[in-house]
Amino acid sequence: MIINSLKIILMCLTLVQLNGFANTIILAEEEQESAKSISKKPKVIVQLNGAYYHHGFLPRLAEVLQPIGLKQNWYWPASRLYDLNDTSVESHRIALLEKLAQLITSNTGDSALTDGLLKIKNQISQWQLAKRVLIPIDFDLAKINPSKNPKFSAGRYLLNLSKRTESIDLFGLLNAPVEMNHKGGSSINYYAEKINFLPSANKSELYIIQPDGKIIKAGYAYFNNTPIELMPGSSIFVPFISNLFSTEFDELNQQIAELAINRISQ
Questions:
Q1: What whole-number distance in Å separates Cα of residue 209 and Cα of residue 179?
Q2: Which CATH superfamily is domain 88-127+165-266 in?
Q3: In 3D, which of 133, 122, 210 has the Cα closest to residue 169?
Q4: pLDDT, mean of residues 26-37
Q5: Which pLDDT tens digit goes with each residue over 93-102?
Q6: Residue spans per domain, the chain
Q7: Which candidate, 256, 161, 248, places its Cα nearest to that of 209?
Q8: Phi and psi (nearest 5°) for 80?
């Protein structure tokens, strides 16, 4: 009787152990399937001219451009890559808008200045922004030059390619942002002569933002003329006039120009 009872107990223990072992196998298999599922998730998602491309690896620039790199005669200098994982640009916008609001409050006695501050504040509020990645975007160059073919980090990106544009856009201390036709061989003076400046605008120096994101301060008055030819797709920022006794507006102008680099091209 005792022996039979012991046998029954041993059989029960064996069944429990086998059941636990089976559960362990099932859990291990479930974990493996979960790991496989995670590994299948795209590491890089690129919105390229409106279409989404998912990469299960970390692609290089040439691989990202491959689907449409040769489908159009793209104007590579105006191509723009944005890192949608980096939200710092929006923080910079908020800080800049707060600074403009403070300047409006502290300069209520100067209607010309407050009008200019309000106009640029409204313009910045309406910008579509994302952190721009300032690298050359060129399919042919990326294929032949390893240093121009960087690897993407994991995350989400926006990449806009466009054909050659024939316009220049202007914003800042003018009644409203405008576009002008690009004229080859023309210097900054050609465009400056057509600007309706606000009273608080600097009428002797402008900021040029080239399509590749490079910022150039260009004088166009007789005493500081800078012979610079604008590239198609450039932007001109009309800044505030400088104050001889403070660098506050010089710093403000630079901050506005740097934020403008991150505007999303349409």
A1: 14
A2: Outer membrane lipoprotein wza domain like (3.10.560.10)
A3: 210
A4: 44
A5: 999 999 999 9
A6: 42-84+130-164, 88-127+165-266
A7: 256
A8: -135, 135
